[in-house]
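Field reference: sequence -> structure
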Amino acid sequence: MNSVRGLLSASVISVQNSCFIYPACQKCFSRLILDSRRFNCLKCGCTGEAKDTSYRYRLSLKIADTNDLFDITVFGSCLDPLFGVTAEDLQRCIQDFNQLSGETNTDASPGVLVQAVETCFIGKRFIFGV
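Structure field:
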């Protein structure tokens, strides 16, 4: 893996998926396996009660600079200012919305949220640390 880091000014072409938040291990930030009462991290072995699960942003984007297309994923609290809330607060809002609307897919973001994220990001230029 190349250890050279830099900044890339690029425009967002598309949002690659509709799942912007994931249950994250507090130790290694890997995706947790959740059931109704417990969570388990397959990477580091961390376990706990589902009610204590932390959430983290993961925004997968297709971006373009003047010459190339890139698939990138932006993780973590750097997205808090762009969403206006922490990932945990947004997760609570999504859960409340899904309960009110009768949505059974707990991983799905409401369509209106997906549309809002697309409107806010697609066509906009950002500086990415890569």
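Note: Residues 7-129 form a domain with the OB fold (Dihydrolipoamide Acetyltransferase, E2P) fold (CATH 2.40.50.140).
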